[in-house]
Design goal:
Oligomer: heterodimer
Largest sheet of chain A: 5 strands, parallel
Distance between the termini of chain A: 65 Å
Shape of chain A: elongated
Largest sheet of chain B: 5 strands, mixed
Shape of chain B: globular
Largest interface: A-B, 26 and 19 residues
Number of strands of chain B: 5
CATH superfamily of the largest domain in chain A: FAD/NAD(P)-binding domain
Structural class of chain B: alpha+beta
Number of helices of chain B: 2
Radius of gyration of chain B: 13 Å
CATH superfamily of chain B: Beta-grasp domain
CATH topology of chain B: Ubiquitin-like (UB roll)
Number of helices of chain A: 8
CATH topology of the largest domain in chain A: FAD/NAD(P)-binding domain
Chain lengths: 353, 110
C-alpha cells in the first residue's frame, strides 16, 4: 500500500503544480496517471505547441512547461504510479481514502485531489460491428509484448507514428505485416515513413492504401479482416490474419471517476469554487480542467490557482488544530524533503563611511 | 458587429439556425459550443488544435470553404465516420462568405 498525504489523480500541469504547493506546507504527494509519462495532454497531445498565457512566460512549449514543473517539484520527491488508471475509491472509517488502480496498486491518503483533465487517455476504437467480440481474441489496441505476434499474420491500421513504428518493428517478428491506412500520406516522422517505404519495396510490409478495414470475421478468434480500397470500383478483399491492431491514437474519457459518487455536470466534476474546490464528497477535491463551477475556464493558469487553494484546505483538514499563515517563497525559501534548500540571498548591509 | 446565419443540425438531428459573429475570431466549433448544441466534453476536446476530430461536421451546402490544412487533412484521415464533405469545425474560421452555411455534426466517437 502506497501511503501519502495528498493523492493526486492526474499528472498534468495542475497535478504537478499541486505537488509544489503541498510541499511548501510539508505535505507529501503521490500521483497516479493512466499515461506512461507525466505531463498529461501537454506531453501526450501537443508537446511541441507553444503556450502564450502562462504568467511570466511570453512563450513556452507545452513539453518544456512540463519539464520545468518536474524540475520545480523535484525537491518534494513526489511518488508516481504511471501507466495505471485510478479505478475505485473507498472511504475508510477515519475518513481517509484507498484508491486502487486497474492493475491493483493500492494508495492510501487522507486527501484525494482529482486533477484528471479530460479524463484518462484510452485507445480510439474503430467503429466495427463485432469489434468487442474479438478484443483479446486477436484484436488489441496496445502492444504490450511484441512476442505475441511472432510468426503471426498481423494487420495494422492507422496513419500515425505508432502505426508506422509498430509495422516496422513487427516486420521482423511477425510472419506477415499488412499496414492499412485511409490515405496514401502518413503523418509520422519522415524517417519512419521512409523505412516503411523501404520495407514495402523489399516485400516485408504489405501496404494497402487508401483503404479501410470494414469488417472482421471469425468464430471464437479473429480469422480474417475485410479491406475495402477507396473508390467504389474495387470489391472488398478478405485477408486471412491472426491479429488486428488498430492504432488510431488516444482519446480522453472521464472513465471510472464518473462512478465515484461525485456530482457530475457537463462531463466535469462540480466543486465549491467559493472556497477550496472540494467536491460533494468531503476530502475529495477536483482541480484543473476536470472540474466545473460558474464561470469555469479550462486554462492551465486557472488550474494552478485551484491547486494552490486546494492545498491550503487540505492542510487544514489534515491538521485541524494547527494555525498556519501562508508564507511567501521569497521570504521562507523552499525547503525540499530531500534536504535541499533554496532561499533568497541575504542582502549585505555595509556601513557607508 | 456583423453576424451571419448558420444552420447546424445537432447529433440528435435537430436543426438550429444560429447567429455567428464574424468579428470575434471564432470558429465553427466554438459557435457550436457557445450555443451548447453538443454537451461540453463531447466537442472541442483538444481545444481547437485539429488533434481530436470531436468537432467533425458534414458540410451540406455548396459554400466554398478554405482548403484543408495538412493538420486537418491528417486528422480526418484518422477519424471515424468520415465522409467526403467532412470538415473539422475548429478549422473553419467564421467569415462573411459563410452566410447561410449548413452543417451537420458528426456522431460522437464512443
Amino acid at each position: 500500500m502506497i501511503k501519502t498525504d495528498i493523492l493526486i489523480i492526474g499528472a498534468g500541469p495542475t497535478g504537478l503544480f499541486a505537488v509544489f504547493e503541498a510541499g511548501l506546507l510539508k505535505l507529501k504527494c503521490h500521483l497516479i496517471d493512466a499515461l506512461p509519462q507525466a505531463g498529461g495532454q501537454c506531453s501526450e497531445i501537443y508537446p511541441k505547441k507553444p503556450i502564450y498565457d502562462i504568467p511570466g512566460f511570453p512563450e513556452v512549449l507545452a513539453g518544456d512547461l512540463v519539464d520545468n514543473l518536474m524540475e520545480q517539484i523535484k525537491p518534494f520527491q513526489p511518488g508516481f504510479t504511471l501507466g495505471e488508471r485510478a479505478e475505485t475509491i473507498e472511504k475508510l472509517e477515519d475518513d481517509s481514502f484507498v484508491v486502487t488502480t486497474n492493475k491493483g496498486t493500492k494508495h492510501h491518503a487522507p486527501i484525494v485531489a482529482i486533477a484528471g483533465g479530460l479524463g484518462s487517455f484510452e485507445p480510439r476504437r474503430p467503429l466495427l460491428e463485432n469489434l468487442s467480440q474479438f478484443e483479446d481474441n486477436g484484436v488489441a489496441y496496445i502492444i504490450k509484448d511484441p512476442e505475441v505476434y511472432r510468426d503471426k499474420r498481423v494487420v495494422i491500421a492507422g496513419g500515425g507514428d505508432s502505426a508506422l513504428d509498430w509495422s516496422i518493428f513487427l516486420s521482423d517478428v511477425a510472419a506477415e505485416v499488412t499496414l492499412v491506412h485511409r490515405r496514401n500520406e502518413f503523418r509520422g516522422a519522415l524517417d519512419s515513413v521512409e523505412k516503411v517505404q523501404h520495407l514495402k519495396d523489399a516485400g516485408k510490409i504489405n501496404l494497402i492504401t487508401p483503404a479501410e478495414i470494414i469488417s472482421l470475421e471469425g468464430k471464437d478468434r479473429l480469422e480474417a479482416v475485410v479491406v475495402k480500397k477507396a473508390g467504389d470500383t474495387e470489391e472488398p478483399v478478405t485477408l486471412e490474419v491472426d491479429n488486428f491492431i488498430p492504432l488510431f491514437g488516444l482519446s480522453p474519457k472521464l472513465g471510472p471517476i464518473g462512478d465515484w459518487g461525485l456530482e457530475i455536470e457537463k462531463n466535469a466534476i462540480k466543486v465549491d469554487n467559493t472556497l477550496d474546490y472540494q467536491t460533494n464528497i468531503s476530502g475529495i477535491y477536483a482541480i484543473g480542467d476536470v472540474n466545473t463551477y460558474p464561470g469555469k475556464l479550462k486554462l492551465i493558469l486557472c488550474g494552478f490557482h485551484e491547486a494552490t487553494l486546494m492545498c491550503q484546505s487540505a492542510y487544514q483538514r489534515i491538521f485541524p488544530d494547527k494555525k498556519y499563515v501562508m508564507k511567501y517563497t521569497t521570504v521562507g525559501g523552499v525547503t525540499g524533503f530531500d534536504g535541499s534548500k533554496k532561499e533568497a540571498p541575504k542582502a549585505v548591509v555595509k556601513a557607508i563611511d | 458587429m456583423s453576424d451571419i446565419k448558420i444552420k447546424i443540425t445537432d447529433r440528435e438531428g435537430v436543426l438550429h439556425e444560429v447567429d455567428a459573429p464574424t468579428d470575434m475570431n471564432m470558429n465553427l466549433m466554438e459557435i457550436v459550443r457557445s450555443y451548447e448544441l453538443a454537451p461540453e466534453g463531447t466537442i472541442g476536446i483538444c481545444g481547437g488544435m485539429a488533434m481530436c476530430a470531436s468537432c467533425q461536421c458534414y458540410v451540406k451546402s455548396a459554400h466554398e470553404l478554405p482548403e484543408k490544412s495538412d493538420d486537418e487533412d491528417a486528422m480526418l484521415a484518422e477519424a471515424f465516420n468520415v465522409e467526403d464533405n467532412s470538415r473539422l469545425g475548429c478549422q473553419l474560421h467564421i467569415t462573411e462568405n459563410m452566410d447561410g452555411l449548413e452543417v451537420e455534426l458528426a456522431p460522437e466517437e464512443l
